[in-house]
Amino acid sequence: MTGQPVGGAAVKAFPVARSEARLLVPALMFIALVVAAVASLGTPLITSVATSFHVSLDSAQWTLTVALLSGAVATPVLGRLGAGPHRRATILATLAVVVAGSALTVLPLPFAWLLAGRAAQGIGLGLTALMMGVARDHLPEERSAAVVALISVVSIIGAGVGYPLAALLAELGGVRAAYGLGLVVTAAALLTAWRSMPEAPEGRSAHVDVAGAVVLAAALLLVLFLAGERNLWSRHLAVAAGLAAVAVVLLCVWAVVELRSTTPLVDVRAVRHPAVAGANLAMFVGGIGMYLLLTLITRYAQTPHGAGYGFGLTTFVAGLVLIPFSALGFVAGKLTPRVRKRVADPLLLAGSAVVVGGGFALFAAARSDLAELFAAMGVLGFGVGGFSAAMPGVILAVTPKSETSSAMSFNYVVRSVGYSLGSAIGGLILAAGTGPGHLFPDDSAYTTAALVGIGAMAITTLTSLALARRRSSETNP
């Protein structure tokens, strides 16, 4: 890696013994997988929740949205806490909150308590960046780079693991049984963390910028709310536009607060570094495209034959379509650390974006057979896996070890916003392609959405290539 870390010198790490490292690595992977899978449990259960709790589908949708919201808000705060001396306590306390939330989703309580439980589960999404900080502090440099890349990948493919399992349990035992899976695995993650998480290196401090956290939370709540409430844009455009303007103002205020703070929640000056800013831009636009294709394929697979297309798959069978996504995503994550010895991380980002764009092209051109959907999902998984594995390398090349959790947490906030917008854009395009009196959009609407996705991945590719050119000019002046 080239370049000097921004934001000050790194604090010396304390690598764990080799035997402890063998236990630490699978523990980091397991925790990252669990928090990602549990947060995604809402996706296959929306219909079951609506039926079981006698609420509308829009209300049931909040079981997913509220987890994303709480995760986006909690991530930068946990990232800052994870940069300080109390990282182990932060990890354990957060997992305890996730376990408590999981219990709320299982107990026979009203719908409002289910939403509270899902919000608590979503907070666990902020632990991914902390897992990266632990790996970077306590593993040898070469080993830690590969582990950080895999943690990033696991945080993506966790949805593919949790989706079919939750759908199967919902079919066999109802929605409470599906959420029971979350309680079991989060309790196991808490026990794993208690047994394996080392203390943070000495000499660090982390003060949470409360004012910055509040302003950022308000801005993110508005952004993700607007992304999830598609009806607001179609029925009350002026209100939606006004709220969007408020969100932009809040983000500007937050940036000013962070620049003036001596202990910022996120080091905005470091975020402005060309490598970090470019990586976050690529993550934002790429996240829009990646999640757009994921939602398009799963929705297409479940559309009944009566619409003139689709396969009418049950929730569980549709979840199996995600298996190629998870499997090839993991393969890409394992291959990337080897490839990056010869190819720079920004070029890996660009290549992965091209692969995702190929998945869009495949979906746009061929989707009349279920095997073609499996193929498109596999291509998407391979591209997303490579992209996710390469992303930390771009950011951490100019980030001190002490700021790993904070820097990556901001990147994950950007990713969450990109994913939410990708889902919203897909919904808007398909809604626009739904004729009066029709329940399902025209098949051509899926093609239009795929072309939009190709455009997003083209922008991501160009941004990544610009990063690569800058890296090359710095290395060879």
Keywords, please?
mainly alpha; Growth Hormone, Chain: A; 0% strand; globular; transmembrane; MFS_trans_sf; transmembrane helix; antibiotic resistance
Count structural domains.
3
> Largest sheet at a glance?
none
Q: Class of the largest domain in CATH? A: Mainly Alpha
Which fold name is given in CATH as the topology of the largest domain?
Growth Hormone, Chain: A
Radius of gyration: 21 Å
Secondary structure tally: strands: 0
Number of helical elements:
19
First and last CA, distance: 16 Å
Unreliable stretches: 1-13
The CATH architecture category of the largest domain equals Up-down Bundle
- Provide mean pLDDT, rounded: 85
Protein name: Multidrug-efflux transporter 3
Subcellular location: Cell membrane
Domain Major facilitator superfamily (MFS) profile: 21-472
Main location: membrane
What does this entry look like structurally?
- The chain is mostly helical and 477 residues long.
- It has 3 domains: 13-207, Up-down Bundle (Growth Hormone, Chain: A), CATH 1.20.1250; 209-264; 267-477, MFS general substrate transporter like domains (Growth Hormone, Chain: A), CATH 1.20.1250.
- Helices cover 79% and strands 0% of the residues.
- It is built from 19 helices and no strands.
- The protein has helices spanning 18-39, 42-53, 57-82, 87-106, 111-123, 127-138, 141-173, 175-196, 210-228, 230-235, 237-260, 268-271, 274-302, 315-320, 323-339, 345-365, 370-396, 404-432, 443-475.
- Mean pLDDT is 85; it is low at 1-13.
